[in-house]
Write a structure and sequence with these properties.
The protein is α+β, with helices and mostly antiparallel strands. It is built from two helices and seven strands; from the N terminus they run H-E-E-E-E-E-E-H-E. A six-stranded mixed barrel has the order 2-6-3-5-4-7. It is elongated.
Length: 139
């Protein structure tokens, strides 16, 4: 076989593979559902972790986080300095139902807190200021 022809076939195979990966990524569901299929990964002993969380004073709507999430008034997520982007979590506060969310930004948060939460998530949880929330990983 001609080396130039073999190189062209390998390049075309690479392009086809890349197209397939892009097609899967575009058609896969990236939105958060109600958590019906995901289950909480409970802490040994059956509990949840607790952490201080609060909403930042000013949301920068229209910008993208370092995880690539576009911030809108409806964005529901947390910022954490340790967990990687897109890690899914269940969070709860008081008597609120558990809410499925994800890490939408990775950067340092206000000292003393574990998470910053978006205004929409704070509203759904019913927290004002800084509160101790419960959280677990979702699987």
């Amino acid at each position: 076989m001609n080396p130039a022809l073999a190189q062209r076939e390998v390049a075309l195979a690479g392009v086809a593979l890349l197209a397939a990966v892009v097609a899967v990524a575009v058609t896969s569901s990236r939105g958060l559902d109600d958590g019906a299929q995901l289950k909480p990964v409970l802490v040994p002993g059956g509990g949840w972790y607790t952490a201080l969380a609060g909403a930042p004073t000013a949301a920068r709507y229209g910008t993208r986080t370092n995880c690539g999430v576009l911030l809108t008034p409806g964005t529901r997520g947390v910022t954490d300095s340790v967990l990687p982007c897109n890690v899914r979590l269940f969070v709860s506060y008081g008597h609120s139902p558990r809410i499925l969310t994800q890490v939408i930004a990775q950067r340092p948060v206000v000292p003393g807190r574990r998470f910053d939460v978006t205004p929409r998530l704070a509203e759904q949880l019913g927290i004002e200021g800084v509160q101790r929330i419960k959280w677990v990983y979702a699987r």
